[in-house]
Amino acid sequence: MASIAKVTPVSIATAAPDAEHSLSGLIAGEAISSGDACYIKSSDGKIWRSIGTAANAAAVVDGFAAGDCPVGEPLSLYYNIRFRYGASLTPGSYVYLDTVAGGLSDAATTGGTTPIGRVIDATRIDLVRSY
After folding, report:
1. Which own/partner pairs from 37-42 qualify as long-range (CB within 8 Å, at least 24 positions apart)?
2. Which domain holds residue 104?
3. Tens digits of per-residue pLDDT, 84-100?
4. How far apart are CA 90 and CA 87, in angstroms?
5. How many domains does the chain have?
6. Calpha distance 6→102 (Å, rounded)
7. Rg (CA), the chain
């Protein structure tokens, strides 16, 4: 399994996402980096980085952070969007939730069994929710 966990996106390749593809008005429960897969924790209503180490609530992906955000600050999540990466990706391959918090992997993990993205070309990935 090759982790593409900390391949930071260069930009959102999709035009400004509309309200139908974003979640806003939420607060980061931890420091979150651009491109991190995230979920909304039911116990506090805050945004946390998703992780695929176990099949639990933290393995859900509600959306992706478009920028860095410190703990306690507002953050919007986006889904059904395209991110541009600076890495050399394999077109046509699927991406899954990684065992590194917020990261992406090219192989399924214990908690990340559902694809959350598809590589479009060498630098772009279409990303979706895990449900």
Report:
1. 37/61, 37/63, 37/64, 37/97, 37/102, 37/103, 37/104, 37/116, 37/127, 38/62, 38/63, 38/64, 38/65, 38/75, 38/77, 38/102
2. 9-127
3. 887 778 999 999 999 99
4. 10
5. 1
6. 9
7. 13
Secondary structure of residue 2 in the 3-state scheme:
coil
Contacts of 110 (CB under 8 A, 6+ apart): 52, 53, 54, 55, 59, 99
Phi, psi at 43, each rounded to 5°: -75, -25
Kind of pairing between the strands at 117-121 and 124-127 = antiparallel
> Residues of 12-37 as b/e, b for ≥16 C-beta within 10 angstroms?
bbbeebeeebbbeebebbbebbbbbb
pTM: 0.88
Backbone CA torsion sign across 130, 84, 126, 118: negative
23 domain residue, yes or no: yes
Q: Does residue 3 sit within a domain?
A: no
Residue with tokens 């979640």: 23
Predicted local confidence at residue 114, as pLDDT: 95
Q: What is the CATH number of the domain that holds 37?
A: 2.40.300
pLDDT at 5: 43
